[in-house]
Design brief:
By secondary structure, the chain is of the alpha+beta class. The chain is about 50% helix and about 15% strand. Strand 1 and strand 2 form a beta hairpin. Helix 6 packs parallel to helix 7 and helix 7 runs antiparallel to helix 8. The longest helix has about 55 residues. The two termini are about 55 Å apart. It binds adenosine-5'-diphosphate (ADP).
């Protein structure tokens, strides 16, 4: 198979071909113009030379020697009658110089002609008809074209040197310029190849070196910026994916090892029914944990793929919120936490009741989990035009400012002295709750805000569009 030519070579050849055609065209055009001008000049010269001779012949038709006596350097004359007989011939014109067979005799109008006779100088001649008395005669004036030919020859010589020289210069300049212009692309290619090689076995975020963005800003620097953004995104997605997989397997490993430990213990020797019961309770707990993690991961992966199927049922958000509060009241009561709600406003909505309740439960559970005893949680609903905002405010331990940006990440937990472990009935900290809430709210076209003060409490606000 023929090897494809490189872009560099194709561009260079294209430049040279275009410049070559243009230059050849220009030189040819100039040559034609110059040669036409030179001949016009010669013709004008011939007419100028003929004018006084004709005028003499016409004013004095009796004089039979007017032309015979002429002897001007570089100008030959011949007087011919209408039948082609030579009447007179200038002294400097030897016989046979003007080959009458080669000269067009046009009769009534002036004809210009170039006579190219073997072994003789080329002659430019004019055949001028005029009337002498009642006779129609022709005056032939000729002059050698030597000077004109020399001028045109010099031009041809210059063109023959300049044309290849210009092509050579074009080839050199285009090779240099195309090479210089394509260098960033070669750098991009090397970069991308290196990234591809290394991405498979190391952390892409560590390897990633941004492409140099050249100034002034041109198409290539914009391409470099776009590449940088793309690689950044790919690197961070790859990094997140790896982190997610490692976090997920770590989370799954703990309940699995507890389960394995329990079963091994039970199978080691016969046990009392009470011991079986106790082990089954532990196993049930761990299975629930596992189920929750797997369920959460499934929701997140569906949301990532944009395939979270949200129903579009008519409902009242205040009612779903009230139901979630009722569901969690027993848990709140174990810590003497009051769930105060301001849900008097009817808020009709078209959406998915199950996912909405799941979000509300996540915020309420967190508020209970991260609040000390004898505090209160405030749940407010606020519908403003096209948006509805639901606030979950607690008087809990709050979130340290440096963790604010991360709490919605998967498996992210804040280790805090104010919170040690889940109380009975509480969902143990898994670091997935806020990530799931965030993914669902985003799928609903909304957003979540968090304002929190360490030691004073947090307010999470869910904003949802009323009409999608
Ligand atoms: P978890 O299962 O650990 O609660 P989440 O994703 O729901 O996971 O929350 C992530 C982290 O955010 C928690 O570990 C906790 O430190 C912090 N957090 C969430 N809600 C609150 C809250 N109401 N008060 C204080 N901290 C909170």
């Amino acid at each position: 198979m023929m090897r494809a030519w490189s872009l560099r070579r194709r561009m260079m050849l294209m430049f040279c071909a275009v410049v070559g055609v243009l230059l050849t065209g220009c030189f040819a055009g100039l040559y034609i113009l110059l040669s036409r001008e030179v001949h016009t000049q010669l013709d004008r010269q011939l007419l100028e030379a003929a004018r006084p001779v004709i005028s003499d012949l016409v004013t004095d038709p009796a004089d039979e020697d007017d032309v015979n006596q002429l002897n001007l350097p570089g100008e030959y004359f011949e007087l011919v009658d209408s039948s082609g007989n030579i009447l007179q011939r200038s002294k400097n014109l030897p016989a046979g110089v003007l080959d009458r067979g080669a000269i067009p005799w046009a009769g009534s109008r002036t004809v210009f002609w170039t006579l190219d006779q073997r072994g003789r100088d080329r002659l430019r001649l004019a055949v001028i008809p005029f009337r002498r008395g009642n006779q129609q005669e022709l005056l032939v004036v000729a002059t050698p074209t030597l000077t004109a030919d020399r001028t045109l020859g010099t031009f041809r010589g210059i063109a023959l040197v300049l044309l290849p020289l210009s092509l050579l210069v074009t080839a050199l300049v285009s090779t240099w310029y195309v090479g210089k212009s394509l260098t960033p692309i070669a750098t991009f290619t090397r970069h991308a190849e290196r990234m591809t090689e290394q991405a498979a076995n190391s952390n892409p975020q560590e390897l990633w070196q941004p492409l140099p963005v050249t100034t002034p800003r041109d198409e290539l620097s914009r391409l470099a910026e776009t590449f940088n953004r793309l690689f950044d995104r790919v690197a961070s997605s790859l990094g997140q994916l790896r982190q997610f997989v490692s976090d997920a397997s770590h989370e799954l490993r703990t309940p699995l090892s507890v389960l394995r430990g329990e079963t091994e213990l039970l199978l080691a020797e016969p046990r009392e029914p009470k011991q079986y019961h106790e082990a089954l309770r532990v196993m049930d707990n761990e299975l629930k944990k596992l189920g929750r993690i797997v369920e959460g991961l499934f929701t997140l992966s569906m949301a990532d793929a944009g395939q979270l199927r949200l129903a579009s049922d008519p409902l009242y958000i205040n009612e779903v919120l009230e139901a979630a509060c009722v569901l969690l009241t027993p848990l709140a009561q174990t810590k003497q936490i009051a769930i105060e709600r301001e849900l008097n406003q009817d808020c009709p909505y078209l959406g998915d009741e199950v996912f909405l309740r799941q979000i509300f439960v996540i915020f309420l559970e967190n508020a209970i989990k991260y609040s000390p005893q004898n505090t209160s949680i405030k749940v407010q609903l606020e519908a403003t035009g096209r948006m509805v905002s639901i606030h979950f405010g607690d008087q809990g331990i709050g979130i340290p400012p440096e963790h604010h940006a991360h709490i919605f990440e998967r498996f992210y937990r804040v280790e805090q002295p104010g919170y040690s472990e889940a109380k009975p009935g509480e969902t143990p900290s898994g670091g997935l709750g806020l990530a799931i809430a965030h993914a669902i709210v985003r799928a609903m076209g909304g957003s979540i805000d968090c304002v929190s003060e360490l030691g004073a409490g947090s307010v999470f606000t869910v904003h949802l569009p009323l009409h999608q």
